[in-house]
Amino acid sequence: MAPSAMAPAVEALAARAEQQRQTGDYGGAAATLERALRIEPQQAYLWNRLARVRLEQGQGTQASNLAARSNALAGSQPELKQNNWDIIATIRRQSGDVEGAVEAERKAAGG
């Protein structure tokens, strides 16, 4: 899921945030992504990554909102949209919204 063109500084921040996320430093990853978003607030990839971090932190409502925002900015990035719908489906399923989860999974599959 390669992001669309980002400024080099933003790419560096995104890479650092991913390293932080993978080592379990979710607070650091979120702060790094928020910094990158201050530079490029229209970058759908960054909103997606922040949604993933919030999901891993157990902040489902925020993760869902961030994934939806990423989808709104994603344009013609089907892999990114699929990942966002996967996040939304996970959150809906965790909250007991099985119908909503199935709908999100259908959208993730391109339906």
Automatic annotation (TrEMBL):
Residue windows of the TPR repeats: 10-43
What keywords appear on the UniProt entry? TPR repeat
* Pfam families for the chain: TPR_19
Secretion signal, residue range per the UniProt entry: none
Read off the InterPro entries from this record: TPR-like_helical_dom_sf, TPR_rpt
Q: Would you tell me the protein name for this molecule?
A: Tetratricopeptide repeat protein
Q: What is the taxonomic lineage of the source species?
A: Bacteria, Pseudomonadati, Pseudomonadota, Gammaproteobacteria, Chromatiales
